[in-house]
Every structure is written in C-alpha cells, then in structure tokens.
C-alpha cells in the first residue's frame, strides 16, 4: 500500500546516491566512499520538504569541504520525472529537496486507488496477535475503566490489523475464584434478606452492595419458587446462584459492549482452564523446570529468581536489582486451590504455546502494574519469552466531569458509573472518541458537557462536521453538474497555495500515524491526526474557493476535498466512530 512520505524519503536518498556516483564517475568526487544518505524532514518550511546531511557525513572520508561535496551533488542531480522540483544547498552543506506537483498528484491518486485500505502496510507481516481487553469481572455492571479499556483495545486491534497483523480479539471471563464465591454469597445473603427481612440476616461486609445484586436475588427467588431455601444445602445453593448470576450478567455485558461497537472473536472462560487441567499442567511444568518450592503446605513460584534473571537480561545492574523488594508468589494454596496468578500463567501459556499466537497484548488498569513483570517472568520460566511476547498496555484512570465537578456515583449501583448509564447520557461516537483521545499512560478527564456539545470545541463533532461539510459540498456540486472527478483527470499543479499543499501533506501523513500508533500501541494518535486534518481542511476551505472557480481549478479542489472526506472516514472507522454525511 501507499506511503508517499516514505516514498519521497526513499527517492531523495536514491537521488543523492545516484548523483554522488555520477560525480565520482566524472572525477569530481572520490569514488568508493560509502555514505548513508540520511533523509530528514526539516522543521522550517523555508528549508524545503526533505533534507540530507550527506555532504557533512562524507566530508572526512572524501577529504573535502562539505559545501564542495554538496555543490557536486547538486550539479549531478537528475530530477526529471521525480517527486522533486528543486534541490538547494544550504548552510554548511545541507541539501534541501522541494516537492513538486507529481508528488502532490500521487498522494491524491494513491488515496483514491487504495480506498478504505489507505494507510495499510505490511509492517505486521502476518504476525498472529491476540488482543485481550475489558475482561471485567462478571459480578456486576461494567464501569468507566472498562469503557476506556474497551475503545482502547478495540481501536488498537483495528490499527494492528491495518499494518498487517492477523488479529484475534478476546474477553477473558473471570468465572472462577474468590470473586465468584463472593458474588454467590452476596446473592445468597440478599435472598435470605428477601425471605427473612433485612434485619434478620447480616450482609457480608466485603460483599457486592449494588442494586444489581438485589435484582439477581429477586430473579433467582422467582425462578426457584418454593424450592428455596429447603431443597439444597448452602454450598449447592451458592453454586446455583453463581451459575444464575453469570447467566444473567454475561449476556448484559455482551449487549452493552455491542451497543458500544465492540464484538469479540471469543469469550474465554477462566473456569475452562481449571476443568481442562491446564492450570495444574502449567504449574507442573514450572515445578519440573525447578521454579517452585513448598512452604507451609502451599506451592510457591520462585518469582524473585525469575525476576532477577529477567532484569539482568533487561540490562539492570545487580545493585539496582538488590534494591527491589522482590517477593515470591503462591501458585497452589495449602487447601489445594490454585491462585488467580496460577490461572493467569496458564491462560497466557495457552495463548503463546498451545494457540500459537506470536504476540499477546493485554489492556489492563494501571493498578495492575506490579503484576506485569511477574507474569512476563513466569512465562520466561516456561521458555515462552514472555518479556518480549507479552505486551501489557497499562491504562490510567478516568475522571468523569459534569458542570466542572466530578461525577462519582452510578444511578443503579451506588458505585462507579456503569457503561450502560454513560451510554444513556452521551452518544456512542462521543464516548468512543473521548475515551481514545489521550494516550493510555495519561489520566483522562471526560467532560460530559463537552461530549454532547455541537460546536467546534467538541473534537468529535469538529471532525464529523468536516466530513459532513464535504459530503454536502459534493452533493450540491453534483446537482449542478460537477461530480467528483477521478484523480487522473485533475491537474495537481493548480493546487499550489500554501493551504492546498499543507492539506495534501496532511493527507500523506496518515500512513505514518497508523504506523506510529501500531509501534507504540497507542491508537490515540489517530484521534489527534483527525483533529489536525479537519483543521487543515477548514483552513483550506476558508481560503480556497471551489464553487465559481474555473472548471479546471474547481475540479482539482473538489477532488482534494473528496480525498479529505475519504481519509476522515477511514480514520474514524479505525477508532469505531461513524462518519455522518449530514449534521
């Protein structure tokens, strides 16, 4: 696929090398000197569009002054048929390349020919990548942290897919362990209170206090009828309540996420790791490798030793490592039950070994940062190179604001704001855009008032309005007999104002932004790019008349506007936001 910024950079390097070789053949420069033609993007527009320090880099080897080398290169350059109109020598010997109309035309042509795949690349080279995100405990409604993690994981998966990765999206359902036991006991307590009265049965202090638990208890009682509470022992009731609660909550989670524009390739259940023996098998492998020991009836992982080896490989000194408070972890408790950490190791072993993914990416809350290195080290101990094949994207907290004040309470649960409550207040597009608007490493202030405003202060409205504005322009001109032309039909040389050139350069930047977002696991680059592109379009539209111009100029500018429309729609699709034609 097309990346015209990289193509121009490559061509500038090739032109410089070819000019050197011609100058050497002519005896003007010494032959046989290897100088990498590093190409940079100048910070100042007056310095051209691309620049190389080839002359300075080769001065010592050639035993010549940099400006003399640079002049020889300029004298032997052949720009015919290239992306560049001119090359000038500047300063101590820089060569500054200025783009010509062929490059600007090829940008527009590439966007037309690539269509919805504009910006795609083969950087991922078919790498199989599993992106696990949200993975909220199924014990209650999803909250704001899940909302941020949802759009972050979904957008990241889209970006990685665009650069050629084979993507699998997964939700890990924590349907085993202490939180499920607490969930069942919370439902049980509410059932007892419904039967005996709240004053007659104490609710566990560490139980789940939300209204949703009361609703589950009422639903369970309605289902069991007269069988409650006589026909089973407490343990049997707890098992039945956990099963019932999950059967009600998980479909609601799926429904909320679908409403949010998120679907998964698989919902993977933690309980399956236990029932299949995967957890016991994984712990057994760690023991076989010598990474476990028994103490106080429990089986422990030598996490400290694993971390020391990992940190040494990562380049930490022994002095630095000795200052860390490294601790070992329990894998199997004295009562015979495996810990959540043991299940987590087994789950990621399954991802990397049994299921054959090259890379596993997890989106976690920042409060789990202490777990990252421990899990990677455990996978290292299994020979799975977890330090490189497991990537954890840590996500900072969301601060919800309304009328300038923090909003903390959910209408239903009395705790954190639930996702379904949020989506009752603001459009899905606004939610997805805002939650992806900053890097995951930064806390996010989500302003509810701003998210519903319909003006340029609201970034998602600003970007969508640019798209709708172009659609209206295209429809109006088509009615008047001026449809959008093909790229081959326009004269790009007419697009020569600063606003037009800047806009086309912004369009060319899109593949670079996708590549950066993929390499840094930060899809918020797409949001910032879209706001910037919309701004450049509005500046172009205000400075460059379309309707009423000469037919050739109208046609060229109309095609440019339509090209912006296509890239805006392309970028919005990457972050799961719609591109409306009317607003």
Strand content: 5-15%
Dominant shape: flat
Ranges where pLDDT stays below 50 over 5 or more residues in a row are: none
Report the count of strand segments. 15
Kindly report how far apart the N and C termini lie: 32 Å
Query: How is the main sheet built?
Result: 5 strands, parallel
* Radius of gyration of CA atoms, rounded to a whole number: 30 Å
Strand order of the largest sheet: 7-6-5-11-12
Look at the helices and sheets and give the structural class: alpha/beta
The helix fraction, in percent, is 40-55%
Mean pLDDT figure: 95
Topology of this protein?
Elements: H1 4-25, E1 39-40, E2 50-52, H2 54-62, H3 66-75, E3 84-90, E4 94-99, H4 101-114, E5 128-132, H5 144-162, E6 166-173, H6 178-196, H7 211-224, H8 234-259, E7 266-269, H9 270-275, H10 278-288, E8 292-295, E9 298-301, H11 303-313, H12 318-322, E10 329-332, H13 340-354, E11 359-365, H14 369-381, H15 386-389, E12 390-395, E13 398-402, E14 405-406, H16 419-425, H17 428-435, E15 444-447, H18 448-451, H19 459-479, H20 498-508, H21 510-520, H22 524-543, H23 551-574
Parallel strand pairs: 5-6, 5-11, 6-7, 11-12, 13-15
Antiparallel strand pairs: 1-2, 2-4, 3-4, 8-9, 9-10, 13-14
Helix pairs in contact: 1-3, 2-3, 5-17, 5-21, 6-7, 6-8, 10-13, 11-14, 19-22, 19-23, 20-22, 20-23, 21-22, 22-23
């Amino acid at each position: 696929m097309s990346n015209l910024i990289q193509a121009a950079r490559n061509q500038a390097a090739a032109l410089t090398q070819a000019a050197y070789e011609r100058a050497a053949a002519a005896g003007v420069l010494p032959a046989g000197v290897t100088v990498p033609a590093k190409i940079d993007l100048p910070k100042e527009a007056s310095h051209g569009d691309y620049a190389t320090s080839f002359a300075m880099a080769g001065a010592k080897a050639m035993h010549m002054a940099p400006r003399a080398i640079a002049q020889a290169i300029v004298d032997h350059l052949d720009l015919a048929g290239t992306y560049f109109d001119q090359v000038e020598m500047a300063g101590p010997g820089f060569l500054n390349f200025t783009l010509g109309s062929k490059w600007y035309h090829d940008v527009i042509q590439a966007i037309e020919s690539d269509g919805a795949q504009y910006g795609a690349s083969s950087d991922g080279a078919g790498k199989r990548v599993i992106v696990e995100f949200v993975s909220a405990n199924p014990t209650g409604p999803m909250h704001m942290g899940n909302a941020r993690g949802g759009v972050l994981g979904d957008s990241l998966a889209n970006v990685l897919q665009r650069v050629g990765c084979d993507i699998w999206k997964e939700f890990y359902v924590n349907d085993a362990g202490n939180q499920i036991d607490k969930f069942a006991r919370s439902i049980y307590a509410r059932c007892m209170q419904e039967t005996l009265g709240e004053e007659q049965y104490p609710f566990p202090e560490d139980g789940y206090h939300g209204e949703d638990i009361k609703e589950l208890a009422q639903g369970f009682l309605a289902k069991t009828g007269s069988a409650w509470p006589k026909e089973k022992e407490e343990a049997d009731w707890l098992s039945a309540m956990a099963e019932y609660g999950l059967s009600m909550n998980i479909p609601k989670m799926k429904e909320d996420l679908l409403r949010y524009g998120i679907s998964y390739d698989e919902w993977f259940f933690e309980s399956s790791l236990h029932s299949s023996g995967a957890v016991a098998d994984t712990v057994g492998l760690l023991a076989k490798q010598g990474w476990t020991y028994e103490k106080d009836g429990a089986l422990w992982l030598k996490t400290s030793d694993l971390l020391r080896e990992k940190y040494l490989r990562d380049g930490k000194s022994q002095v630095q490592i000795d200052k860390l408070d490294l601790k070992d972890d329990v894998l199997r408790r004295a009562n015979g039950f495996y810990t959540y950490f043991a299940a987590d190791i087994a789950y990621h072993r399954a991802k990397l070994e049994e299921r054959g993914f090259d890379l596993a990416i997890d989106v976690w809350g920042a409060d789990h940062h202490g777990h990252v290195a421990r899990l990677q080290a455990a996978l290292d101990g299994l020979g799975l190179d977890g330090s490189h094949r497991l990537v954890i994207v840590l996500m900072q907290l969301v601060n919800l604001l309304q009328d300038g004040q923090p909003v903390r309470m959910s209408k239903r649960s009395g705790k954190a704001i639930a996702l379904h409550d949020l989506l009752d207040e603001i459009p899905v597009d606004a939610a997805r855009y805002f939650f992806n608007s900053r890097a995951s490493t930064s806390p996010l202030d989500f302003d509810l008032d701003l998210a519903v405003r319909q003006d340029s202060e609201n970034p998602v409205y600003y970007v969508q309005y640019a798209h709708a504005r172009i659609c209206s322009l295209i429809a109006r001109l088509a009615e008047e007999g001026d449809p959008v032309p093909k790229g081959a039909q326009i004269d790009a040389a007419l697009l020569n104002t600063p606003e037009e050139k800047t806009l086309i350069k912004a369009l060319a930047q899109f593949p670079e932004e996708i590549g950066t977002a993929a390499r840094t696991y930060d899809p918020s680059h797409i949001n910032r790019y879209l706001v910037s592109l919309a701004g450049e379009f509005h500046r172009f539209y205000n400075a460059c008349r379309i309707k009423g111009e000469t037919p050739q100029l109208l046609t060229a500018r109309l095609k440019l506007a339509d090209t912006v429309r296509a890239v805006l729609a392309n970028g919005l699709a990457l972050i799961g936001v719609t591109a409306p034609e009317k607003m």
